[in-house]
């Protein structure tokens, strides 16, 4: 995977050794397999949260894995201009590239470990498209998109865009150097990621070597969700099997135990996990299409505001390429 890597993991800061007598490892409460759906102009995605209750997902709303897929020339697709209100989108590119532009002036090119973090807040229009070079040549594409809810008091926050380069993530490893932990947002064992969110969360991408184990300290006030991007392994002290395209919903505790199977497929030589958790908002959620509000009436108002052009105006010119 081209997402940020380190040649020698042993040079990185290391997770603390956890005391088994004083640690509550979170058990697996639910394991679901993501169904395949269609997004944007027709590209396939895995719907990572399908079948999970909003109560267990809170403060998250939606999660898609795009790829990993080998695209022929002309096949890469994106999304048309579309609106959002009431939440944040977090797009993480593991392999390939995507261009973003929004009606608030944010955007640019992200690739290979970069993250674009867009706060829709009061309302925004945006578009995500593959760069012309990728459309012309084809190639591998692999990424994710996460929706983070905003509490009622912050749903009308001003729109904001964060361009987070892969090299900005906090990097650490396990005591034996068996995994690369990329902290994109939040804090793990005192190592803070660069992402800034209105809703307190932790977001990390972990690559686990075959047979290696990760004992990850976790905020006991957060929920915990583990999605397998690639490979196979186990979750929890009960060693619940998990493989690519599955999401584990974990129960209460202050640590996560993750382990890669000793033998992995040749196309997925390591276990890659997208691990997220956050402070539950515990407010009503009314989710309709690109709007995440508290009530049906607020969504109706969002639709009316969009139709009236109050969520933004499509820029006349494309942003220049950045990276």
Automatic annotation (TrEMBL):
InterPro entries referenced in this protein's UniProt entry, alphabetically: Pirin, Pirin_C_dom, Pirin_N_dom, RmlC-like_jellyroll, RmlC_Cupin_sf
Metal-binding recorded as keyword: yes
Residues noted as binding Fe cation in the record, renumbered to the chain: 82, 84, 126, 128
Keyword annotations from UniProtKB, A to Z: Iron, Metal-binding
Cofactor note: Binds 1 Fe cation per subunit.
Cofactor field: Fe cation
Domain Pirin C-terminal: 204-311
GO MF entries: metal ion binding
Keyword Metal-binding: yes
Residue ranges of domain Pirin N-terminal in the record: 43-148
Family as reported in the entry's similarity comment: Belongs to the pirin family.
Alphabetized PANTHER family for the sequence: PIRIN (PTHR13903:SF8), PIRIN-RELATED (PTHR13903)
Name assigned to this protein: Pirin family protein
Organism: Glycomyces buryatensis
Species lineage: Bacteria, Bacillati, Actinomycetota, Actinomycetes, Glycomycetales
